[in-house]
Amino acid sequence: MLTRLRIRNYALIEDLDVTFHAGLSILTGQTGAGKSILIGSLNLILGEKASMEMIRSGEDEAFVEATFELVATVPEVLTPFVAQDDPILLRRQVVRGGRSYAFVNDHQVTLATLKEIGDALADLLGQHHHQSLLRTDNHRQLLHQFAVDGGLAVRYGGSFSTLKERAKELHSVVKADQLSAERRELYRFQLQEINAARLEPDEEASLGEEVTVLCNAQKLRDTARELSYSLAEDDDSALNRLRGMLKLFESLAELDSRLRDKVVQWKESVYSLEDVAFELSRYGDTIEANPERLTWVEERLQLYRDFSKKYGKGYDGIMTYREKIAAELDSLENREERIAELQDEIRKLKQEVYKLGREMSEQRRKGAEALKGKIALELNELGMRGTKFDTSFTPISNNTGVAVTEDDDPCLAGEDGLEEVEFLISPNPGEPLKPLAKIASGGEMSRIMLALKTVLAKVDRIPLLVFDEIDIGIGGDIATLVGKKLKVLAQNHQVVCITHLQQIASFADTHFQVRKAERGGRTVTEVVKLSQEERVAEIARMIAGKEITDLSLEHAREFLRGAAEA
């Protein structure tokens, strides 16, 4: 849910910081106070296009930041930016000159990514168009969640995914069959050459070190022997002198016990140097020139260099190439058998996908009828008695579908079933049903969306719903009913509603007032959370206008009591 909205230098807003809560939040205020500015800022943070007119006069940039907390599974689109239970921080900056920047948890993202994230977090329902239900891609998903058994959907998805994988593999095997006989012979020769070389993972580096030693054998042997002689064998060697000085040091330690630890260190140093001298002497004896070994090592290194040019850099590159040609040869040499296996498996998978798809289609069509009835009831209650709702089913297109029958006019299947789904609506009696995305916006649209959201509340996973202009053209009992439905909807979603009607405002869990103020000689928009008594005064204003009387205050209290009882 949305927990915090910060806005700076956006239109009339100088600096605004609003904390939101779960349930139903209502925003009210006089016409022109800036309620539409809040909707605009939400649109901006959810990925809509920016405009320079958004920036407050005299400022260089506008800034909008929204914090969301997820109470369910993290949507897939957010997994690169956030872990489970972590807050989500969306930020948008619009800079004079036409530049706009978007961030998700301080990761800069494209506008397309921000919009995709916005689609998963919020719906703005009304005259603005950040609405999931206006995108036909979501219709099938919502109907699917409303009507189709979850286990059936999982089985279909698994079978369809396997079908696509096997079809892709068959294409690769058939394509591989087109390799020429000369190519196959080349692969066989290369594979044999690599296998015969018996390469080892770290051999090339080891051989390089050995070449250095063999090329410098005389210098290594002479220098090692000279060091060993100077260190330990000469009468005036370093060790002899250190041993003599040690005796003198020991005599000092007998006079001052504080030096005893240093004497021990000196002795250990002498022992270490004795070991070094011994190892140098032995090392010098083991080093000898070996021209034959040097020749073999250099030839072996040249083999690695030649293979690296032909097959891939170093041992890893050569082995990767070997695995590739071995797999291709295996595929070629067993192609007929594998092609037959794949064709048989694909035939069975198509039958399975078609069977499961038909079952899903039947459940969807039954669910569509149930959805039609439920939405008709909702629309009737919302004062839209003549409005009709239905669902259209059209075959999957050739561009995206996979044929799962062998008919002259085959049935096509997609990732989510055998048909495309689209919601249709006719807002006025006598008018034909049209796609939901093409109906008029405004209060009529908001009420239609309220009906849809109410029916689909338990399967619609978008956490935040914002209703704007939902009260256009209604009043009285219908307005009260709209308030009730918003309250019910707020049990499954966080709901924010902008309204001019006291009937709707009375149902708020949290009530905000949007108002204008003057600061530093300039007009600014403010948003204030109202206390219970302030709510009474605001609803009284909505009833009576500027002249608030004792009667209008009493009426306001009656509205609040009635909403609480309802």
Descriptive notes:
The structure is a single chain. The strands form 4 sheets. A 6-stranded antiparallel beta sheet has the order 2-1-4-5-6-7, covered by helices on one side. The two termini are 25 Å apart. The chain folds into 3 domains: 218 residues, P-loop containing nucleotide triphosphate hydrolases (Rossmann fold, 3-Layer(aba) Sandwich), CATH 3.40.50; 150 residues, no CATH class; 35 residues, no CATH class. The protein is 53% helix and 18% strand. It contains 17 helices and 17 strands. The protein is α+β, with helices and mostly antiparallel strands and 566 residues long. Strand 1 and strand 2 form a beta hairpin.
Summarize this structure as a short list of keywords or feature phrases.
single chain; 566 residues; alpha+beta; Rossmann fold; 3 domains; six-stranded antiparallel β-sheet; six-stranded mixed β-sheet; flat
